[in-house]
Specification:
The structure is a homodimer of 245-residue chains. Chain A has 245 residues and is of the alpha/beta class. Chain A is 31% helix and 21% strand. The first copy, chain A, is built from eight helices and eleven strands.
Chain lengths: 245, 245
């Protein structure tokens, strides 16, 4: 992989063993947290005045990371005209730690996922479980939406919720379900490690199943809307739960 | 305007006097709340099995709204293949009521704005001020991101923050500023009507100015991220403020 040739680097597909960051900010996060995974960094000739690019060049030199000015490559991998840096890296797997978790059941929107990842990090929740099928966290659009936050998180895929549940039985589990009795704003101090479980953007959670294996909880909302945006719900939930720690 | 001919209906530009909804859900919201503004509804032949389309047809017939199956028009106005309904309407102005407000200073992202509009509605905050320059709320992409919530809200543009401030002096003003002393999670019961003020996605608020004319407040966050996504910040803030009502 470290000898991946330029001609073999193509627009991302899920089955590839490598992916890449689009833009200066996520590339800096990649360098900071997953330096050992980097295959090569490409920078644009247009970024010559950019402070972030100077920083990337400096670190790359110090750390002996391959770096190359290559506008053709940038254009090949990015649709946007203003991408100044791309960091190509070998994909990796991470394992969840025993701690507080966000559990996303079949998340399907990359933008939402990226925002959730960044928000979780902002509240010091560093472990996210994804119950398959779900979005590909290494899709460059998901990485960009997270502003590179995914490199600072442990994100692990599970085939089923049971698989997750069996490994983390000790966590107190809360499922966000619209017809729950318990409102988030009535939450009492949570003493144990917790898992906050959220369903798919359109279909939500299988309420019957999740009510059995967890506490159902909901965010108070008016009847004017069907439901809150998923990332907003997760953000509000994380805010409330981490407040009680 | 009510006699706008099909050949004159074009892909949206800000300067047009009309705009349109893209999709069944926002079109239903348009019909529910701003029926009098509707010029014409177009539906797709592909939507024949769609329950929402049946509902739109029924209401249009009852209310004598022009409705037409026109795939060519749908393709002209929409980039997406799965748009089944488009509601063309005459733009309108609305005025803020004396109540709780969200104030967005120079918002620049349509997706964020749409999510904020829908979230505000979900917490019964029905008045949003936009300090110019800011996104065009009638851009079909903003309408879609709001899932049609904009039709249920009063959204008013102000040339400057002072113009807003002079008219709503009685509201207690809170500005979301990163280097404030007051944390949102320490907020005490708010007795008066409030205005929650948020800056632009990249540049934030002019901290010196807003600290003078309002209470600075911030959301507790880790140092791992620069700042939360704007829509997430607004969502968390609305949740906390409406909890204390």
């Amino acid at each position: 992989m470290n000898f991946l040739k330029n001609k073999d680097i193509k627009k991302y597909k899920k089955e590839y063993e490598y992916s890449y960051t689009l833009g200066v900010f996520p590339t800096l996060e990649l360098i900071e947290k997953k330096k050992e995974q980097i295959i090569k960094i490409f920078i644009s000739s247009k970024g010559i005045e950019n402070e972030g690019i100077r920083k990337i060049e400096k670190i790359a030199k110090e750390s002996k990371i391959l770096i190359e000015e290559n506008d053709k490559m940038i254009n090949r991998l990015s649709n946007k005209n203003n991408t100044y840096a791309i960091g190509v890296f070998k994909k990796y797997r991470s394992k969840l730690e025993k701690d507080n978790h966000i559990v996303l059941v079949n998340p399907s929107d990359m933008g939402n996922f990226g925002t959730i990842a960044r928000t979780a990090l902002g509240f010091n929740i560093k472990n996210i479980a994804i119950i398959s099928p779900g979005i590909d966290i290494f899709d460059p659009r998901a990485i960009r939406a997270s502003m590179g936050a995914i490199f600072k998180l442990n994100i692990e895929y599970f085939k089923t919720f049971s698989e997750y549940n069996n490994r983390f039985q000790e966590n107190e589990k809360y499922s966000f379900i619209l017809d729950s009795e318990l409102y988030l704003d009535q939450l009492e101090r949570v003493e144990n490690k917790f898992s906050l479980i959220f369903g798919n953007e359109s279909s939500g959670l299988d309420e019957e199943y999740f009510k059995k294996i967890s506490k159902g909880i909901k965010i108070r909302q008016s009847e004017e809307i069907d439901s809150l945006n998923l990332a907003i719900s997760v953000g509000i939930a994380i805010y409330e739960f981490t407040k009680t720690i």
